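Reader question, answered in our methods column.
A reader sent in the components of a multi-part assembly and asked whether the whole thing could be modeled at once rather than chain by chain. We filled in our standard form and ran it. Here is what they sent:
COMPLEX SIZE: two components
ENTRIES:
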Amino acid sequence: MTEPVLSIKNLKIALPEGADRDFAVNDISYDLYAGEILCIVGESGSGKSMSANATMGLLPDLVRPVGGEIIFEDTDLLKLSEAQMMDLRGKKIAMIFQEPMSALNPLMRVEDQIAEVFEAHGLLAPKERATRAIELLTEVGIPDPEKAARAYPFQLSGGQRQRVMIAMALALEPRMLIADEPTTALDVTTQAQILELIRNLQEKHGMAVMFITHDFGVVAEIADRVAVMQYGKIVEAGTADAVLDNPQHEYTQKLIAAIPKLAAEASEETAGKTPILEVEGLNKTYVTGGGLLFSKPRIVHAVNDVNLTLSEGETLGIVGESGSGKSSVGRCLVRLMQPDSGTVKLAGHDMAQLSGEALREARKSIQMIFQDPYASLNPRSKVGRIIAEGPMAHGVSKQEAYARAVKLLELVDLDALAIDRYPHEFSGGQRQRIGIARALALEPRVIIADEAVSALDVSIQAQVLDLLAELKERLNLALIFITHDLRVAAQICDRIAVMQKGRVVELGPAHAIFNNPQSDYTRTLIEAIPGREKELAAAG
Amino acid sequence: MMADFWKRFARNRGAVIGLAILAVVILVALLAPLLFPQSPWRMVQRPFLPPFSMDQYPLGTDALGRDVISGLAYGAQVSLLVGLVSTVAALLIGIPIGALAGYFGGWVDDALMRFTEFFQTVPSFALAIVLVAIFQPSIESIIAAIAIVSWPPVARLVRGEVLSLRSREYVEAAILSGQSNLTIILRQVLPNTISPIIVLASLMVATAILLESSLSFLGLGDPNLMSWGYMIGAARTVIRQAWWLSFFPGVAILLTVLALNLIGEGLNDALNPRLARRGK
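And here is the structure of the entire assembly that came back:
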């Protein structure tokens, strides 16, 4: 075999004192060859981005490499000076990041940002830079590249911004591209396009690509070889097929088993059950701008004539990409947002019309679980207080509320001692359990889970989903599960509503949606799920 | 938590020095009646006694033969008292206004912020002079005047913090769980604004001390209390013959205000660790 482009040998990177472990990466070695895509997979905190950052010389201040070497073109990158690294960055090794909005300068036109790459390395005359920028934008498949070149980042969509980042990375035809979670912030259909683009460009230019991700679906789509990381060590490495189809290490097996399967089972008929929540003709529009005489107000129909019913004990999924209005629906249901028109009948009462004390009472039976396990718990309240606050606000005595909080903590598999601790002492998954306990504290009949597992690692995600399913059974809850992730929806939902641009484009039993989608949009969504083809091939 | 806080605070060496200076000032203020049992207004020696010429009066005497060092000690009492009390009063006005404006938004916000701007557009020192002149100079009127001119920044700060906090998911969860607006403001929102408020307050104490000194310098101080500003004001006509009369009170003001600013910066580092400057 040929020489590797990049060869990492026994790399050790130390974390500052007081971190949860001594080494961010501990004695890892791998090679990256030209013309291949190596995926580095791991959960958050596994150290998967660290070796890439060390390669680029982008480690945080207090984190430093203490052993091993990173060989690129016969030189050890760890020994290079900052000036030498600057010359190398962009020219020989390029990098793209997770969040294209924050990686681009918001006040600079796209063509200037691309030209800056040439300028930094003193290449090409200014005019040539501009033409080359357009060529690059054409190559990454941006529609109307001339116009895009004159645009500012905020005028482009997320996918287009990521394409601009890729164009910048490709500008100097590097030998190696590092992609750190480049599609995590993107919608599933855009993600599929960007993955295809990276694959095509890599083949065309014969680059070596180091692709860092947490998502095994993405790995299945794009990887030639895979390295799985846990606690700063590589626990398993090999070709994509070998690792995905026949994982050897226990941790890899666990991770792959935790991925929700795409196949939805046919669930029992819910038509006969009593509906607990009926939503009719729900509308919500946002109007922005239009303050002055000449500017036209921008009207966004976030929720457009939505009709839903939810039966007792049922799980209804609301699925859609960002901007589809799925979260707005959830917020209108609990009246965190005031709908423009429509009725929300919850056990006979119209939630949309209530106010004051009546609304407070009605909200007891409809509670919410939030997305961000870090932002959804007050950092200055103890866990017991967080859970007991709701019942206390409704007149339950302090003692009884705390006693109930202990029971709820046990119900969500947390230690009862947790009530005297602050949220920051818990991990993301544990915090989400606290959030669930809080939602249950008022003994609601309907729970709305807004992207409740999206911020969690896949193995934690599986545990929380299991917990939700179990609680739903035990307490006879009805659940509205809002998510962008079709795999998660397939696993937990009885029925699914697919939303696009504020409208429900398809509504039906989960297995029907997955096996026989009726609308074009649903079909596109399902086809875009990463790793789907592989799973289909394996299934049959 | 507390140990962490100290570690981060102590990492800023300036802050520790500031704390040491402030501790000395506080100690002097507390011990003034013991160290100098006589009234600072009493004539004890010949006028214009230069400093370091008599052991009993190390910093000399003023135009009326009053002991300068005793005046400094009693002045520390006035400065600290005015600084602390007026800051607390300003917080008591500013925090509720900012919290209500930020939490309720809409017309409540508009009304309260226009009211705040009304105070902001008037130059604060001029307003303070007018207020003290109207209500007669006394320690109470000085404290009230300083509080009235210094609450608007508090209100604006709290409003901004509350605006960003009120859309947090834990606040929404509190709304859903049926808590009243008052409970939500007091329990969910305000405790999370405390760090920037503490930092601002430490700087406001410094500003208040300066304001009080300026008022006293202009002769608008409490006529019964010896203060640093009064000492400088009384000495300004003889600054060429008796430099020490304005120099020592000036140094006292400088050190105290500097100490409070250093502490403020240290608190900022300790309470907002993510904003702390890197590379130390």
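What stands out: Chain B has twelve helices and no strands. Residues 85 and 143 of chain B are 7 Å apart (CA to CA).
Send us your own complexes using the same form.
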